[in-house]
Amino acid sequence: MLRIPRGLLLRFGVLAAILVASLLTLRVPAVREQLNPETLSETLRQLGAHPLAVPGYVVSTAVLTSIGFPASPLVLSAGVVFGAIWGGTLAYLGTFLGALLSFLLAHTLARDLVVHLFGERLQTVEKLLERHGFWTLFRMRYLPCPFVLTNYAASLAGLRFPVFALSTALGLGPITYIYTYLAASLTQVAQAERSGVFRNLILATTLILILSLVPPRIIAWRQAREQKRDQGLPQPPEDRS
User: Fold this and answer.
1) Which residues of the chain have pLDDT under 70?
2) What are 53-101's pLDDT values in tens digits?
3) Which residues contact 37 (CB under 8 A, 6 or more apart)?
């Protein structure tokens, strides 16, 4: 029977307690109501005049997303309150820092336990991550996967921190700005500033669809090339157009 050191169990228990506390908090009606994008946006407007509103938003977003709170309401509210560009920048900073924090949190509290339990069996996963981890994580940013679980899974599976940080930095940028742009456009509709708004909404929706569909195609193409290269087969010609 595999003996698990008490310290590993204690650290994992801390992480589990954080996640359970977050899930229970999200079930409280008052919290769910506050995380509604409209309610959250109104709260941010009321705090907008405070000099600490901007750093407060970034820090709060980083902390909340790192412990399991959904990122979408926070991102959308930034677009509503701060606008497409400035709001996108703040939302990007907050979610990026939240991703790094959640990665480090999982690595510190649970990675050693995973290694202890699975040992050499993790080597296969780590080799796959060495080859495909960057693009796999990049793709995950455009799929409807829980933000914090994606970060925790990458950390526990053994993805290297520099690869995680770079893939996250590149992956979060486009989708974050598109969502804040969409939220800002919807705000203009609500305020009867309809000139060009519907065109902007169509553009934002189109970009979201493209970013959701193109990365999987690119990854599938890259994987097909690598498999044929490994098998010694002729590679498909590159598109030089």
Assistant:
1) 1-2, 48-49, 188-241
2) 889 999 999 999 999 898 988 998 898 888 889 999 999 999 999 999 9
3) 72, 73, 76, 77, 80, 183
Give the Å distances, CA to CA, from 211 to 47, 124, 171: 33, 30, 10
Task: Please check whether residue 119 is in contact with residue 28, taking contact to mean a CB–CB distance below 8 angstroms.
Answer: no
Whose tokens are 């992480």? That residue is 15
CA distance linking residue 184 with residue 225, whole number of Å: 41
d(CA 74, CA 172): 14
CA distance 132 to 141: 15
If DSSP codes are grouped into helix, strand and coil, which group holds residue 164? Answer: helix
The three-point CA angle 57-162-23 to 5° equals 45
Cβ neighbourhood burial of 201 (10 Å; 0-12, 13-18, 19+): middle
Query: What is the number of other CB atoms lying within 10 angstroms of the CB of residue 198?
Result: 11
C-alpha to C-alpha distances, 198 to 24, 47, 172, 203, nearest whole angstrom = 39, 30, 25, 8
Q: CB of 99 within 8 A of CB of 151?
A: yes
The pTM is what? 0.79
Q: Which tokens hold the place of 173? A: 């940028």
